[in-house]
């Protein structure tokens, strides 16, 4: 990279600024305080039609301070973690805490819960990549895609590479910091036939650049995705099974996690309020998180409260085994934190896995959905209605692309109706899952 | 409206440049670093914003936050190439470093000079004020508590009330190598109420909100706390009675105002200059052709007084304007920033927008709306024997290449034999932009703008926008319900 990034020096600097904020808050009258600070640096290169289009160099920092005075709370943040800025942020947070109302549940997580095991989880792999090398990779990716017969044009290939440091500290004396990196390469292509144009893409993403797929493979796969969409028709309207592609199945896991998150529960804004212990999925399905997994996308030994993370099981043998709680939401619900301030980390499914072909065979007649559009998911009721594109399946075989239709149901019924999980696991994100076959949804098309 | 150019520049310079030891004259040298070999345009974008947010839950304002953001973004263009770097420090050193980095996009060619800065003259579309300072903390808390009391008193089924008040005081200054020198002070405030109602084992949400580019005190003077609290409860109670929505193709009547996100998704994004220059939009190459029914006139208008999407000048320093996009069904205009306008041989339209100094500008919408027609809204409903009447939406999305768009209703009703009957559960509507606009068969005389709640996302950047439309009938759209 053209800008030097000394991660160790940045880490030391952020840690000292976090300590400074804690000291200052105490001096100015805060009884408790917590600080989050981060710095990220990266490069993004995009090419289009064989030429460089943009080169962006990014360097972001931020510091956020929350102070507690009695049971009152105030928060302030800044995009500058300089000394003057840290002082201004602490003073502003305290000024706010003079106006907010008392909240019996407010405050830091208990001191005894602070993380003490802080191993290196191997998530920092900087990529000493020059702009020219980054450009070369993006060009090779795009060229491989454009070289596939039938591709009309390119909307570009992009390479981005970044690393950063984040620090969390609080007035219990806890200070955790972690360096991390993320690199990705994506390609978006356009194809056209007599019915119009279609676009699609593919990408690879990893903590360690050595884990990225080959640039050419990403371009070729983007081309195959795009070409496969040409000639799409609207499917018939009716009830039928729906197979969710792995990237979209991970979205369903995301909806589940949002519904069992403490914030949604204490606000009564979830269709899964008061459902602990209930069977939500078939017996053969379990879901848990592995926050300490070495090298994984969302690994961290401490959560956003400083609490030690742990291997939670959220769904065990089909039943809702645990909510996902921070210290605050746990207090609101009269429960204990699950070390999930900031969300779940590295969700993994435990279920008998089947090949994509076997799932299609079991489906018989229905739709395989590869793209969803819009925000039609109601977390309060679980009602689900989204725009979709994918493929029509008949006799267990893909027949032709389908587009401009909706799939609708209710998340609770969909979870109950999960009949199979694919072995085609997508490991690029924090949630790893294969395809999901849902027994029946309403498809609205032609 | 009066021109405030001079004062605005002086104020912006004081807030943005003076603390780092810079002044307007120093910007020529700063820009010089970005005008490296082969660079044909460069600009500096200085920004500082102060954001404040207050949240009420359980009858108490338990959370409030304050955020200060700011820095400078430096962009260097060479043909279709863009180099970009930014810094959260505004200083001569930061300008030199980011300028040289941005200019590194090309390394050969002639070095061009920076044109002397000439202050942009533009009409002020809102007052250049700090919107946060007009109300005391006690006043802000009192507004939130009023919303809570009104919502809880409105119906016994109301179980949870949350209300929020937020505001941003934003100052920007643009200096470009083409001589552009412009500044803007942009206030933006918003009040929101969300309720959960529980009855007979059912649980539903209702929400309402609004705001614009004006002082927070106007939210109090307009009594939005009471109005939005009642509206949020009304919507939650309607949804408690909702039956399953139908599935399939049918006539759809859209209410006035916020349902205008139809235009934002079905038409707006597809008419942004970048997608048309690259030929990736379903509307590319269709200028002068019929793309909507007769009677359909759609504009993008940054000049509306005090609206959420309005801009006195855009983020490249071009004055905001009203751009006709579709006139009587014929495609007549694209929304442009400088880069795409130049490459397409067109004029910029004041649509260059960026989320912050740390993001590149792109052609973006401001306030996008359809002008009124002549039909009586009651006649529009009467003309439908079986269909859907949708009055509020959660959001939408478009694939600009295929033209497919969706938007998700959050309050909708069945129309049976020309009458509104049962409320139906939220459902996603899907269509194809150009096709759907050709199916507009009736246009009401009741044009309304939304209340000021829109955020548009494009390539990961969010910017505030407005939409609007009269009551509209589309003869056929696919409704994503669960009932055949």
TrEMBL record, chain A:
One BP annotation, GO: proteolysis
UniProt GO cellular component terms: cytosol
Gene3D superfamilies in alphabetical order: PmbA/TldD superfamily
Single Gene Ontology MF annotation: metallopeptidase activity
Pfam families the record matches: PmbA_TldD_1st, PmbA_TldD_2nd, PmbA_TldD_3rd
Domain named Metalloprotease TldD/E N-terminal: residues: 33-97
Domain Metalloprotease TldD/E central positions: 125-230
Top-level taxon of origin: Bacteria
InterPro entries, sorted: Metalloprtase-TldD/E_C, Metalloprtase-TldD/E_cen_dom, Metalloprtase-TldD/E_N, PmbA, TldD/PmbA_N, TldD/PmbA_sf
Domain Metalloprotease TldD/E C-terminal positions: 237-445
PANTHER family: METALLOPROTEASE PMBA (PTHR43421)
Family membership noted in the UniProt record: Belongs to the peptidase U62 family.
Protein name: PmbA protein
Protein source organism: Halomonas saccharevitans
Automatic annotation (TrEMBL), chain B:
Domain Metalloprotease TldD/E central, first and last residues per copy: 131-240
GO cellular component: cytosol
Keywords: Hydrolase, Metalloprotease, Protease
Domain Metalloprotease TldD/E N-terminal: 42-103
Source species, domain of life: Bacteria
Gene Ontology MF term list: metallopeptidase activity
Start and end residues of each Metalloprotease TldD/E C-terminal domain: 248-481
GO biological process: proteolysis
SUPFAM superfamilies assigned: Putative modulator of DNA gyrase, PmbA/TldD
InterPro entries associated with the record: Metalloprtase-TldD/E_C, Metalloprtase-TldD/E_cen_dom, Metalloprtase-TldD/E_N, Peptidase_U62_metallo, TldD, TldD/PmbA_N, TldD/PmbA_sf
PANTHER family for the chain: METALLOPROTEASE TLDD, UNCHARACTERIZED PROTEIN TLDD AND PMBA
UniProt similarity note: Belongs to the peptidase U62 family.
NCBIfam families in UniProt: PRK10735.1
The protein's name: TldD protein
């Amino acid at each position: 990279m053209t800008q030097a990034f000394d991660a160790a020096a940045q880490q030391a600097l952020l840690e000292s600024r976090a300590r400074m904020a804690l000291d200052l808050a105490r001096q100015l009258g805060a009884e408790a305080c917590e600080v989050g600070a981060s710095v990220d640096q990266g490069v993004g290169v995009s090419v289009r039609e064989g030429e460089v289009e943009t080169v962006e160099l990014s360097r972001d920092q931020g510091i956020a301070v929350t102070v507690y005075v009695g049971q009152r709370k105030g928060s302030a943040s800044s995009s500058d973690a300089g000394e003057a800025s840290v002082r201004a942020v602490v003073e502003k947070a305290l000024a706010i805490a003079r106006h907010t109302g008392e909240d019996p549940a407010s405050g830091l997580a208990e001191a005894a819960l602070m993380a003490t095991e802080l191993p290196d989880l191997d998530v920092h792999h900087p990529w000493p990549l020059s702009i020219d090398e980054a450009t070369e990779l993006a060009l090779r990716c795009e060229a491989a895609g454009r070289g596939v017969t039938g591709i009309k044009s390119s909307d570009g290939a992009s390479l981005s590479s970044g690393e950063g440091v984040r620090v969390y500290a609080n007035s219990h004396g806890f200070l955790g910091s972690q360096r991390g990196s993320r690199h990705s390469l994506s390609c978006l292509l356009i194809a056209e036939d007599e019915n119009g144009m279609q676009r699609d893409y593919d990408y690879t993403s990893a903590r360690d650049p050595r884990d990225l797929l080959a640039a050419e493979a990403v371009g070729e796969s983007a081309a195959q995705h795009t070409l496969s969409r040409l000639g799409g028709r609207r499917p018939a309207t009716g009830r039928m099974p729906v197979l969710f592609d792995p990237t979209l199945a991970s979205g369903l896991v995301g909806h589940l996690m949002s519904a069992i998150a403490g914030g949604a529960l204490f606000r009564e804004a979830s269709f899964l309020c008061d459902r602990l212990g209930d069977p939500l999925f078939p017996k053969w399905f379990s879901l848990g998180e592995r926050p300490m997994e070495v090298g994984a996308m969302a690994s961290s030994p401490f959560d956003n409260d400083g609490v030690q993370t742990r291997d939670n099981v959220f769904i065990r043998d089909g039943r809702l085994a645990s909510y996902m709680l921070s210290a605050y939401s746990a207090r609101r619900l009269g429960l204990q934190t699950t070390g999930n301030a900031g969300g779940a980390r590295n969700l993994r499914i435990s279920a008998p896995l089947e090949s994509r072909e076997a799932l299609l065979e079991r489906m018989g007649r229905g739709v395989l959905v590869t793209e969803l559009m819009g925000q039609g998911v109601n977390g309060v009721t679980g009602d689900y209605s989204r725009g979709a594109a994918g493929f029509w399946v008949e006799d267990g075989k893909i027949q032709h692309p389908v587009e401009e239709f909706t799939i609708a149901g209710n998340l609770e019924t969909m979870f109950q109706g999960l009949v199979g999980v694919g072995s085609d696991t997508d490991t690029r994100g924090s949630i790893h899952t294969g395809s999901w076959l849902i027994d029946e949804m309403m498809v609205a098309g032609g | 409206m009066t021109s405030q150019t001079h004062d605005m520049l002086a104020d912006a310079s004081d807030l943005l440049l003076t603390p780092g030891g810079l002044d307007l004259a120093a910007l020529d040298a700063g820009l010089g670093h970005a005008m490296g070999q082969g660079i044909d345009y460069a600009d500096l974008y200085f920004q500082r914003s102060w954001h404040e947010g207050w949240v009420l839950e359980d009858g108490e304002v338990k959370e409030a936050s304050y955020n200060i953001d700011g820095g400078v973004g430096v962009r260097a263009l060479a043909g279709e190439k863009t180099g970009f770097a930014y810094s959260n420090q505004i200083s001569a050193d930061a300008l030199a470093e980011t300028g040289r980095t941005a200019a590194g996009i090309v390394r050969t060619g002639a070095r061009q000079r920076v044109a002397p800065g000439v202050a942009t003259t533009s009409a002020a579309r809102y007052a250049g004020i700090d919107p946060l300072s007009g109300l005391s903390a006690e006043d802000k808390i009192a507004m939130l508590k009023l919303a809570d009391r009104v919502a809880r008193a409105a119906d016994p089924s109301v179980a949870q009330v949350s209300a929020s008040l937020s505001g941003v005081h934003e100052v920007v200054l643009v200096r470009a190598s083409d001589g552009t020198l412009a500044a803007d002070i942009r206030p933006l405030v918003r009040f929101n109420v969300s309720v959960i109602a529980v009855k007979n084992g059912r649980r539903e949400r209702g929400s309402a909100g609004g705001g614009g580019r004006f002082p927070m005190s106007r939210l109090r003077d307009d009594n939005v706390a009471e109005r939005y609290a009642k509206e949020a409860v009304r919507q939650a109670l309607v949804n408690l009675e909702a039956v399953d929505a139908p599935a399939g193709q049918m006539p759809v009547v859209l209410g006035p105002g916020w349902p205008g996100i139809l235009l934002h998704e079905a038409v707006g994004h597809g008419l942004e200059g970048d997608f048309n220059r690259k030929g990736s939009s379903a509307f590319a190459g269709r200028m002068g052709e019929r793309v909507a029914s007769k009677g359909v006139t759609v504009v993008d208008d940054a000049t509306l007084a005090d609206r959420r999407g309005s801009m006195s000048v855009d983020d490249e320093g071009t004055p905001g304007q009203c751009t006709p996009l579709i006139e009587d069904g014929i495609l007549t205009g694209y929304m442009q920033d400088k880069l795409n306008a130049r490459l397409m041989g067109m004029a910029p339209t004041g649509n260059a927008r960026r989320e912050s100094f740390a993001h590149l500008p792109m052609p973006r919408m401001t306030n996008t709306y359809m002008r009124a027609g002549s039909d009586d809204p009651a006649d529009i409903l009467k003309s439908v024997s079986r269909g859907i009447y949708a009055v509020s939406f959660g959001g939408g999305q478009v694939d600009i290449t295929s033209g497919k768009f969706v938007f998700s209703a959050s309050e909708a009703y069945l129309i049976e034999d020309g009458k509104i009957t049962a409320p139906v559960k939220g459902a996603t509507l899907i269509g194809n932009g150009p096709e759907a606009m050709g199916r507009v068969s009736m246009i009401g005389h009741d044009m309304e703008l939304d209340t000021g709640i829109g955020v548009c996302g494009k390539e990961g950047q969010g910017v505030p926008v407005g939409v609007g439309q009269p009551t509209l009938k589309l003869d056929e759209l696919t409704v994503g319900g669960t009932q055949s």
